[in-house]
Design goal:
Strands 1-2-3-4 form a four-stranded mixed sheet, with helices on one face. Strands 5-6-7-8 form a four-stranded mixed sheet, covered by helices on one side. The protein contains ten helices and eight strands. Helix content is about 55%, strand content about 15%. It has about 280 residues and is α/β, with parallel strands linked by helices.
């Protein structure tokens, strides 16, 4: 079983327990457990977590739930205690192992000093564009950077120009690269589903907007602005200290891509139906 399958199966087991919960308090605890799983995926730490699991127990930092601190500490301590009870109640050794993986996810975050980052993720991830870890002027520069990394993240987003690309890395197959997933377009589509909020500022030219955005002393992560009558989303990428402007018209490309995806799915269904009849 690959580490991706292990994390996925552990997440599904926790999700099943979450759906079966009967109290609002327990539901919030199960959500924290599930978000710990998502956090490891979304921050590209799948292989780092795999290496953590591979270390002998004696080489790991002490796994004491009381070491959690900050605003979520009490709930995370309770979540770990619930997981321990669930693990001990399982009859199947494989299910016990999967629950232990969920416990290890919490301990990995805590023992590697990522509590504050995890708390920030809980507060900001769903309301913001996915964070990027680097920016390049060209695809060639991005690929050269990726190929020179000794150990890339298992997944991440980078900017090439102003375009989002998703980094992928499969350590067991020594495969790495980039692909277009229309990440920003999906976010814009979600936050504009009920219409556009009033723009934070209105400009005649893009140059004026860029100057305004670059000189914000404490820029928000994102806002809408208007340039020459067109809506744009302005994004401040805090990790790389870089600001970008993206026209909302990029959604047209995403609409075309969704149509292509739908057509491919119909073709695959048709091929499957033909194959079934032939059998």
């Amino acid at each position: 079983m690959t580490i991706f399958e292990l994390l996925s199966n552990a997440g599904m087991l926790v999700a099943n327990r979450w759906r079966a919960t009967r109290t609002r308090e327990e539901e919030s605890l199960y959500r924290l457990i599930q978000e710990a799983n998502f956090y490891i995926w979304r921050t590209g730490q799948v292989y780092r977590f795999e290496d953590y699991l591979g270390r002998a127990a004696a080489d790991r930092p002490p796994a004491e739930a009381s070491d959690w601190s900050g605003e979520y500490s009490e709930r995370l301590t309770q979540a770990r205690e619930i997981l321990s009870r669930i693990r001990d109640s399982q009859q199947s050794p494989s299910d016990q192992h999967l629950v232990q993986i969920a416990i290890d996810e919490l301990e990995f975050i805590r023992s590697t000093g990522q509590q504050d980052d995890f708390y920030d993720y809980l507060e900001t991830f769903y309301g913001n564009p996915p964070p990027v870890i680097a920016r390049f002027d060209t695809r060639q520069e991005a690929e050269a950077w990726l190929n020179n990394l000794a150990e890339p993240p298992s997944s991440a987003h980078v900017l090439v120009g102003d375009d989002y690309l998703e980094l992928f890395y499969f350590r067991d197959r020594a495969v790495r690269g980039f692909e277009r997933q229309y990440t920003l377009e999906r976010f814009i589509e979600a936050v504009t589903s009920r219409g556009f909020p009033p723009p934070a500022a209105v400009f005649a030219t893009r140059a004026e907007a860029e100057a305004w955005w670059a000189n914000q002393p404490a820029p928000p992560i994102w806002v809408f602005v208007q340039i020459a009558g067109e809506h744009y989303i302005a994004i401040h990428h805090r990790r790389i200290a870089h600001s970008t402007l993206h026209p909302i018209s990029i959604l047209k490309g995403w609409e075309q891509e969704k149509k292509r995806i739908e057509e491919r799915e119909k073709e695959q269904q048709a091929e499957g139906s033909t194959s079934d009849r032939d059998e």
